What we know:
CATH superfamily of the largest domain: Histidine kinase-like ATPase, C-terminal domain
CATH topology of the largest domain: Heat Shock Protein 90
Structural class: alpha/beta
Radius of gyration: 35 Å
Number of strands: 12
Strand order of the largest sheet: 2-1-3-4-5
CATH class of the largest domain: Alpha Beta
Number of domains: 3
Distance between the termini: 41 Å
Amino acid sequence: MQNEPTPKPDKSSARILIVDDEAAQMKALCDTLRDHGYITTGFSSANAALAGMGAQQFDLVLTDLMMPEMDGISLLRRALEIDPNLVGIIMTGEGTITTAVEAMKTGAFDYILKPFKLSVILPVLARALAMRRLRIENVELELRIGKRTAELEAANKELEAFSYSVSHDLRAPLRHINGYAQALSDDSATAFSEPARRYIASISRSVDRMSTLIDDLLEFSRMGRAEMHQSQFSMGDLAHEVIGEMAGDIHSRNIEWDIQPLPVVGGDRALLKQVWVNLLSNSVKYTRPRDPAKIKVSCAEENGEWKFQVQDNGVGFDMRYVDKLFGVFQRLHNVEEFEGTGVGLANVRRTIVRHGGRTWAEGKINEGTTFYFTLPIRK
Length: 379
């Protein structure tokens, strides 16, 4: 009913609507609760009470169960249509407790037995006000979530526009630079000195690297926005599939693979395949100085998670910089020695986090690296 959240009530400002066809009892209850700090309004007619709700807002409604115009359940149902956050309490005699319980099933928060005991009424009112506050906070939370969702959708659209701009607008000048550099290099009529030719070659390499950075940036953006398609599949099959696809590029290398049994998991197969591509190609790259290179893949069940690990005997890294390892464009090795842009591991972390898992790494210089990631076990 309300577009804006209702102020959260406390005892000093709580407004209580009391409805009882016995006027004397209604008035006595109004006076008693007013003496205890509540703001009370009483009606001896159910229809008059509903009309009063149109002119005034209430936090709680205390209604008698048995009334001539309309019973308390019907009154409460009508009142909740006017204000869904209203909290209702049924007042009933000893002989109708079963009916009062049924009333709770239809929306009443609690019931109070007649004749009234103040020691019983006050705790019920306190609990009811707490429920009222909780309902209002939930409404506010939903409003904030809705606003935040709209902001995220707008941000995603802006990111898509940015990605388009990167893909098209930034590539055009790169193509021009590379084209002119290549033209200068191919122009046999121009006698360039050897240093000048090195400068031209350096320009071309820088353009290629910039183009690769753009590609990886777009891939990082796409991985974060890609819709996930859940399925059950074998991680062992997926790891072997990736290794098979890499075979053509590493056929001249002496690599000893040790692929331990891996479980069936739930997740997005395409995204998790890219995780294996990044981790395994990372191990292949950084074991290049080793003969033989040793790469081991294994998994263990721990605390409701599958813990996967990819271990190699490569060049390793200094653990002082481990926090930079999964950052975007963060590299711990010289690009001239080991190619790459530093986006692959950032994509690994983003994908695993989207699956509800964790990533970390351990390493030692010249002794190798072990990458870990977890996935929740879904039965």
